[in-house]
Amino acid sequence: MHIIRRPDWHLPESAVTPEPVWRARRRLLAAGAGALAMAALPGTAARAEEGPAPFSPLPARNPDFADAGRAVTEERLNASYNNFYEFGSSKAISGAARRLVTDPWSVRIDGLVARERTVALEDLLKAMPLEERIYRHRCVEAWSMVVPWIGFPLAALVAWAEPLSSARFVRFETFLDPDVAPGQRQHWYPWPYVEGVTIEEAANPLPLMVVGAYGKMLHNAMGAPLRLHLPWKYGFKSIKSIVRVSFTDTRPVGFWEELQGNEYGFWANVNPDVPHPRWSQRTERVLGTDEVVPTVIYNGYGPQVAHLYRGREEGREIWF
User: Fold this and answer.
1) What is the C-alpha separation between 88 and 148, in angstroms, rounded?
2) Averaged pLDDT, 34-41
3) Which domains does the chain have, with CATH numbers?
4) Which of 151, 155, 185, 190 has the fewest CB within 10 Å, making it most exposed?
5) pLDDT for the residue 172
6) Which stretches does DSSP call E strand in 200-290?
7) pLDDT, tens digit, for every residue of 92-151?
8) Which of 176-199 are b and which e, b meaning 16 or more Cβ less than 10 Å from the residue's Cβ?
9) Are 218 and 159 in contact (CB under 8 A)?
């Protein structure tokens, strides 16, 4: 007999997803592909002022990631409370981010791969297994949210890219367009935004390349049309609006690491016992509530990722 052992933070889907969200999801599923006027690819996305287009059909929810132990954060909060320094240093950048044109969009795959290429996002999505996953998001600033992301495993992209055996890291780069993104006119920042992971982290089942949330294409402020989500790491590692994925044998230096390496390092794995140099990481404020809750090591995803760092847990190396 197959016994399913749930983690101790497990909640049933009905307790995790707000009723308006799951009712809307059921309506979308019932409607079917033919009843919806907008497609799930960037080529038919709605204008920014109208909001993102719904997926048609809505990708199935992965049962292994059907809850995050907390209620899903309201879409209106997630869409309006964002760190996206390309558009400003405050959280209220959603209006400015609407200027980013996300159609057409292409991604460059290069470096230590069998074949370098530039692929249109809609063509890349045709080759990827889209699904919905509910994930925690923990910011290094000690606040958190829960999001029903839609995307495909980073591991699937790695396999598709066919990296050479010499590739040890995956480097991500966001767009560079100072005419659209006023923050990129600030010369003291090392634009474009860059982040990276090891090839072992990239091949883990958890990392998700995100193209949607809440049953829709991504809001621009969330990192449309393509972003990364690494649920066991602090949020600055989850780079937005990706235009380039490079496979390399050299460890990438991230945007924030280049600015302040003693505070924002390469690893950035969540650990409540390792404080940021200027504040504690023991608790987090749950966005949209009055709750302040204890932070969990690896943001609750230790069973899936702790083995990647076995024997290296002492000190600060893998935490910042």
Assistant:
1) 25
2) 36
3) 13-309 (3.90.420.10)
4) 185
5) 99
6) 208-213, 216-217, 227-229, 242-248, 283-286
7) 999 999 999 999 999 999 999 999 999 999 999 999 999 999 999 999 999 999 999 999
8) ebeeebebbeeeebebbbbbbbbb
9) no
Buried b (16+ CB within 10 A) or exposed e, 68-105: bbbbbbbbeebbebbbbbbbbeeeebbebbbebebeeb
CA proximity to 37, closest of 53, 24, 52:
53
Written as six digits, the tokens of 248 are 């390399």
Q: Where are the alpha helices (DSSP H) in 102-198?
A: 121-126, 154-161
pTM listed for this prediction: 0.86
Helix (H) or strand (E) holding 76: helix 75-78
Residue 47 buriedness (CB in 10 A; 0-12 / 13-18 / 19+) = exposed
What tokens appear for 52 in the block?
Answer: 């993102």
Strands (E), 143-291: 143-153, 169-174, 194-198, 208-213, 216-217, 227-229, 242-248, 283-286
Report CA-CA distances (Å) from 115 to 119, 130, 174, 238.
Answer: 12, 24, 21, 26
Cross-strand pairs, 135: 147
Asked if 230 and 178 touch (Cβ cutoff 8 Å), the reply is no
Q: Look up tokens 């809750």; give the residue.
A: 293
